[in-house]
Prior knowledge:
The structure holds 2 protein chains of 2 kinds.
Chain A: H1 4-30, H2 33-54, H3 60-77, H4 83-98, H5 107-114, H6 121-133, H7 137-144, H8 148-165, H9 177-197, H10 202-221, H11 226-240, H12 265-279, H13 286-303, H14 308-321, H15 325-338, H16 341-349, H17 361-373, H18 377-390, H19 394-413
Helix pairs in contact in A: 1-2, 1-4, 1-5, 2-3, 2-4, 3-4, 5-6, 6-8, 6-9, 7-8, 9-10, 9-11, 10-11, 11-12, 11-13, 12-13, 13-14, 14-15, 15-16, 15-17, 16-17, 17-18, 18-19
Chain B: E1 2-10, H1 11-15, H2 19-36, E2 41-45, E3 53-58, E4 61-66, E5 74-83, H3 87-96, E6 103-109
Antiparallel strand pairs in B: 1-5, 1-6, 2-5, 3-4
Amino acid sequence: xxxxxxxxxxxxxxxxxxxxxxxxxxxARTRDVAAAEDALAEAFATALRVWPAEGVPRNPAAWLLTxxxxxxxxxxxxxxARRADEEQLRFMADELNEAPDDIPDQRLALMFxxxxxxxxxGARAPLILQTLLGLNAADIAAAFLVSPATMGQRLVRAKARxxxxxxxxxxxxxxxxxGRLDAVLEAIYAAYSKAWGExxxxxxAALAGDAIWLARLITHLLPDEPxxxxxxxxxxxxxxxxxxxxxxxxxxxxxxxxDPGLWDDSLIEDAEALLREASSRGASGRYQIEAGIxxxxxxxxxxxxxxxxxxxxxxxxxxxxxxxPVVALNRAAALSELESPAAALAALDAVADDRRLVDYxxxxxxxxxxxxxxxRTAEARQALTLAIGLASDSxxxxxxxxxxxxxxxxxxxx
Amino acid sequence: MRFMMLIHHDEAxxxxxxxxxxxxxxxxxxxALAKAGTGFTAGExxxxxxxxxxxxxxxxxxxxxxxxxxxxKEQFAGYFLIDVPDLDAxxxxxxxxxxxxxxxxxxxxxxxxxx
Lengths: 414, 115
């Protein structure tokens, strides 16, 4: 039995789903995303208020359209109607009159428009969240840690650009699909990692759910692309551990110390199934390999079998695909388990000059941890202090402070 | 929709380019544009930016400057017009343009009355 709050959440999902479909369908014809949103804004707000309380109508899209038209007629009577709204509503009406239960799903085309190379990268994820899920600029801004005004401007500019620069609403041709799909996946994954990095914030927990929803949607719309499955699997492995990464009093718990009993088994099962299916399609991309690494962590913690060799090998494979210093960092952490902290530190020295790591918090945290294990106490204290300075999450800061306190005790004891 | 493709050349890179090959490529590119139909024009090529003169009128006073509008490494060097369904199609034409190797192609939609 679904509880009342679950039913309310379901109703909200349906409202967002129908809204996203209508926005996608109309803007694919008019290329005017902002006008499509405007035409539906009031109807959508009403749906978000009414459906969770009174239940979802039989045909959600038709309900939204009816309410939107009624508002429009009122606006016409008050001489406040805009011509753009009329055009948007007419497009919706045409389609719904012909096929009231099933308007063509253009959401994939909308995603490709939002993550087009001509849209600035920082606007792509927010744009997808707004146009497909109807999130408002203030909520997106909270999740992306920028001011609502900045986010609002960024979104307005991006929508104007779709219209004016001639960005198409279509699924790219086979030969250009891989590169363009990467941009879409990157945007969706950016939303998820934003949500995962900033733990404890309500806006972030909701964003994680939204990102997973989008990943499920694109996996459903592009069922033959192994990387979409790989990305969804990666998100689900991570999400499965959400409850376990917090101890009593909200302390931070690193992966190796987590209680696997707190992991969400059903999410892990979904992730494993997706990863198996993706792997069976051949060539592995970045997301599949990262999901493979998460799978190895899960297996090790559940069975106790040491598989660090496999983890390091997967990181080696990943490094061939990307020059990201983050990959080198994570590989070093795994190498510490496989060989020794000293070997890991030697490997890290190779990327120590990379400017991208200077203010990358996990780099200093990992480096400090490895230095501590290697007995280089003074350097460890320095690195961990930097990591505290760069951390935005207080639980992480407390955890690192605990590591430094441990260093002091160890050096006092000798 | 119609786009003007504005060619900006890195004049130093262009000077070092194998000329015969470049003009042969341009010949083929212009033929392809002509074949593509109405709304497609073969490009006009401008003389080098050293030959430019820039005029401004401010409060009734005019200044005439020796040199191009902006003193940048890449200089406006010519244009062509295309008529295509969307930006992706325009990007394809920009990629085909031999000048893309020696600078940048800027794609600007032509303003229409309804906008």
